[in-house]
């Protein structure tokens, strides 16, 4: 049986994980309830024979289009990838210092550096795919 002593870290750990669970689960529940109420509103309007314009449905469901100036560009994504990859290289440099100071910690820091570098590479790859999509979209709009 668990014994919660205020001097031990058990109570603090349990409270921390309960807080993390609440922070993660609450937005999902609230989002579900909002979508459910929205769909009920649309369903009620249709049952009463009211005609809903596409604009009204978009506003009710929250499907608002993103303005062009707020969309992520491939250039910005490429810059973000370069910055994150540079961060991974910096963490690898710190791991090299750990090789001499705390040898047992170095592999874990190298693993963190590899993860950071892979995230940066993923951003860079995402920029490449987005650039191809932008080019295809531009070619289709000029052809039409």
What does this structure look like?
It is built from four helices and no strands. With 144 residues, it is mainly α. It has two domains: 1-65; 67-144. Helix 3 runs antiparallel to helix 4 (106-143). It starts with 9 loop residues before the first helix and ends with a helix. The mean pLDDT is 83.
The Cα radius of gyration reads 25 Å
Total number of helices = 4
Strand content: under 5%
Shape: flat
What is the number of independent domains?
2
| Average pLDDT rating | 83
State the oligomer: single chain
- Give the N-terminus to C-terminus distance in angstroms: 72 Å
- The run of helices and strands is HHHH
Outline the biggest β-sheet. none
Class by alpha and beta content: mainly alpha
Uncertain regions: pLDDT < 50 for 5+ in a row?
Answer: none
The share of residues in helices is over 70%
The tally of beta strands, per DSSP, is 0
Describe what is shown at a glance:
This protein has about 140 residues and is mainly α. The protein is about 80% helix and about 0% strand. The mean pLDDT is about 85.
Describe this protein with a few key phrases.
0% strand; mainly alpha; single chain; 144 residues; flat
Q: What topology emerges from the helices and strands here?
A:
Elements lengths: L9 H38 L6 H8 L12 H28 L4 H38 L1
């Amino acid at each position: 049986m668990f014994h919660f002593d205020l001097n031990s870290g058990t109570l603090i750990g349990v409270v921390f994980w309960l807080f993390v669970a609440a922070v993660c689960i609450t937005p999902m529940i609230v989002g579900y309830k909002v979508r459910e109420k929205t769909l009920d509103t649309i369903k009620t309007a249709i049952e009463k024979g009211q005609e809903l314009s596409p604009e009204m449905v978009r506003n009710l469901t929250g499907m608002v289009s993103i303005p062009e100036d707020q969309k992520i560009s491939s250039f910005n994504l490429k810059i973000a990838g370069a910055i994150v990859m540079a961060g991974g290289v910096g963490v690898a440099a710190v791991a090299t210092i750990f090789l001499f100071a705390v040898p047992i910690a170095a592999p874990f820091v190298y693993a963190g550096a590899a993860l950071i570098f892979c995230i940066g590479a993923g951003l860079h790859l995402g920029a490449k795919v987005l650039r191809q999509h932008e080019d295809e979209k531009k070619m289709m709009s000029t052809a039409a």
